[in-house]
Design a protein that fits this description.
The protein has helices spanning 7-17, 25-32, 36-49; strands at residues 23-24, 52-57, 60-65. By secondary structure, it is an alpha+beta fold. The protein has one domain (12-65): Arc Repressor Mutant, subunit A. A hairpin with a 2-residue loop joins strand 2 and strand 3 (60-65). The longest helix is centred in the middle third of the chain and has 14 residues, at 36-49.
Length: 69
């Protein structure tokens, strides 16, 4: 079963797709023009769906599309 992406998931993936480096949640929210809490919620959801992965550095999550960078 293929799940459709909602507006926020799509915006977040667009931001990560065009980034040349890992982005933290605050940066993803800024570039996607969404609230930090919304970005955090959907980044975690995208991680569970297998679209993105993260790296925890000093208590800060850095995100990327799975398989890129």
């Amino acid at each position: 079963m293929v799940s459709k992406l909602n507006y926020y998931e799509d915006r977040i993936l667009q931001v990560l797709r065009f980034s040349t480096r890992l982005l933290n949640t605050k940066e993803v929210a800024y570039y996607a023009k969404i609230d930090w809490a919304t970005a955090d919620k959907y980044l975690k959801l995208l991680r569970r769906k297998g679209y993105v992965e993260h790296k925890l550095v000093g208590g800060i999550n850095y995100w990327k599309i799975k398989g890129f960078i």
